[in-house]
Specification:
Structural class: mainly alpha
Strand content: under 5%
Radius of gyration: 13 Å
Number of strands: 0
């Protein structure tokens, strides 16, 4: 299972967004999925362009056995920052984990 990433959300100077991100990561690392999800949803609700917040939401959804939501969150992170290796890694692992691999989907996503 992927783990939450404490990378600071670049692109936001709003102290409330940064604080919510830190609280979300801390809650995730302590196993408090509901608090972590609430905090990270608050982060993306305030600033939907923070790729690491989306990656961490994907992690939380994956932990809750919500693969479709995890996939969507990872794809949002990748759309925001195509070179974010962590989101690509987690998305690929998710596809293998839930047997969602289709060569045409991977080729289309990678392009």
């Amino acid at each position: 299972t992927p783990t939450a990433t404490p990378a600071s959300p670049k692109g936001s100077s709003d102290p409330e967004v940064l604080a919510a991100f830190r609280r979300g990561i801390e809650a995730s690392n302590q196993g408090d999925v509901l608090t972590a999800e609430r905090e990270l949803k608050d982060v993306v609700g305030r600033d939907g362009k923070l790729d690491y917040a989306w990656t961490n939401l994907g992690v939380l959804y994956e932990r809750q056995a919500l693969p479709d939501q995890a996939e969507s969150a990872y794809k949002k992170a990748i759309a925001l920052k195509p070179d974010q290796a962590l989101a690509w890694d987690y998305l690929t692992r998710l596809y293998f984990k839930v047997d969602m691999i289709h060569s045409d989907e991977i080729a289309e996503t990678a392009c």
